[in-house]
Amino acid sequence: MKIEVNNELISRLQNLALVELNDREKERIKRDIKNILDFFDQINKLDLSNVEPLFHPISTGKLRKDEIIKPLSRDEALSNVKRKEDGFIVGPATYGE
Question: Which of 23, 56, 68, 84 has its CA 20 to 30 A from that of 11?
């Protein structure tokens, strides 16, 4: 399935993400999304019929150590949120779409 990366898609993503983008940012996002989708198209064209599936993509087992860090307070977490109400993020309505 080929996804058309156009201004309509960028506007939809902008609304879903609750961000405002200027024209320059929209063009950059459009270019970046197109590059990402083109990369996935290249991956989809690879012949992987003789490749054994991996159980886990990191086969070395070298993962970073878990470290306990101080979590953000509610005020810190909501400091950059465009729409909030009673300490919660208000997102776009998705029911009925």
Answer: 84
